[in-house]
Amino acid sequence: MSLTSSSTRTDAIAQYNDNLSWEGNPAKAVLSLEAVRWLLANRPTRFTRNDRSLDYESLQRLEEKLSGYISLHGNSVNRAPFVQGRMLT
Questions:
Q1: How far is residue 2 from each of residues 28, 38, 83, measured CA to CA in Å?
Q2: Which stretch of 4-13, 30-39, 42-51 has the lowest confidence by average pLDDT?
Q3: Which residues sit opposite 55 in a β-bridge?
Q4: Which residue in 76, 58, 5 sits closest to 34, CA to CA?
Q5: What is the DSSP code string of 5-74?
Q6: To 10 degrees, the CA torsion angle through 21, 26, 32, 35?
Q7: Which of 21, 25, 1, 22 is nearest to 11 (CA)?
Q8: In whole angstroms, what is the distance from residue 45 CA to residue 55 CA?
Q9: Per the CB 3.0–4.6 Å rule, which of 15, 30, 70, 75 could disulfide with 35?
């Protein structure tokens, strides 16, 4: 699911909940980061619903953690280290 400007808070929270187990899975991490960023960009100070509350300061810390993980393990990262070059004969 890709969140857009017409997405609702319910969409973002559903995407966030669907990708809670993002560690070890770069694809889920990207979706989770997208949901976190959407929630941060469209946030009130605090969100409470059905006796559940969401503190956006903790989401800010999670956004930083997700960004770091994706930069290390994402698909666009070249993970092959260049250790030594030898001419093939």
A1: 12, 10, 38
A2: 42-51
A3: 46
A4: 5
A5: TT--HHHHHHHHHHTTT-TT-HHHHHHHHHHHHHHHHT--SEEEETTEEEEHHHHHHHHHHHHHHHHHHS
A6: -170
A7: 1
A8: 8
A9: 15
Interacting residues of 3 by C-beta distance below 8 A, sequence separation 6+? 11, 12, 15, 34, 35, 38
Average pLDDT value for residue range 3-32: 92
- Going by pLDDT thresholds of 50, 70 and 90, the confidence category of residue 81 is low
Contacts of 45 (CB under 8 A, 6+ apart): 56
Predicted local distance difference test score (pLDDT) of residue 57: 76
Tokens for 71, please give them.
Answer: 């930069």
Rounded to the nearest integer, the mean pLDDT of the chain is: 80
